[in-house]
Amino acid sequence: GAVVSQHPSWVICKSGTSVKIECRSLDFQATTMFWYRQFPKQSLMLMATSNEGSKATYEQGVEKDKFLINHASLTLSTLTVTSAHPEDSSFYICSASSLARPLDGYTFGSGTRLTVV
Amino acid sequence: GENVEQHPSTLSVQEGDSAVIKCTYSDSASNYFPWYKQELGKRPQLIIDIRSNVGEKKDQRIAVTLNKTAKHFSLHITETQPEDSAVYFCASGTGTASKLTFGTGTRLQVTL
Questions:
Q1: Which of B64, B96, B102 is most worth mutating to test chain A (most A CB atoms within 10 A of its CB)?
Q2: Nearest CA of chain B to the CA of A15: how many Å?
Q3: How do residues A43-63 score in pLDDT, each as one tens digit?
Q4: Does the pLDDT at position B16 exceed 90?
Q5: N or C: more exposed end of chain A, with fewer CB within 10 A?
């Protein structure tokens, strides 16, 4: 089945630094990548949607200059949290879909637990 | 935008009993309704989904029903087992290239 590899699985960084999270689709072409954030005991909140080769579409309230998304290829999308602060500590998870496989739905990465100290 | 409400937020059942979780959605264009099970610190796992051209779908102990007129869908788990304990999320979308909107989640606890 479809697999999305997400790295790192956890990261601790100092306040003010930047962190990059990668999601790779291993056996299919991810035409669309979704990035979610999940705070403890809460639901998944969509941050942005990116289509390969296009600029990401950000949800209301999500700072595009803080959360940089790159989807330069059909197998790789990255989320960079710039100038991270403790309030950015959360579980970040990607989800990929493919127009070529519409019935496969969405494939989630394993998530990245970010802790900013 | 789409709004998905999910109830109850917590549910405790005895092993062997049934569990029902309900969701309502607002966007009449939504046509894809997946259910996910998430264990602590893990990715959501798709357990069943339904598309708007059917009203019910079953997979062993798990079933989902959809009422498009009323804009609600439900997850039914029969003969619950302790390993069913997790957080369950409903979601809705309008196609695989579109975003999913998640419900607020239901923490299911199956007790012995």
A1: B96
A2: 23
A3: 999 999 998 888 899 999 999
A4: yes
A5: N
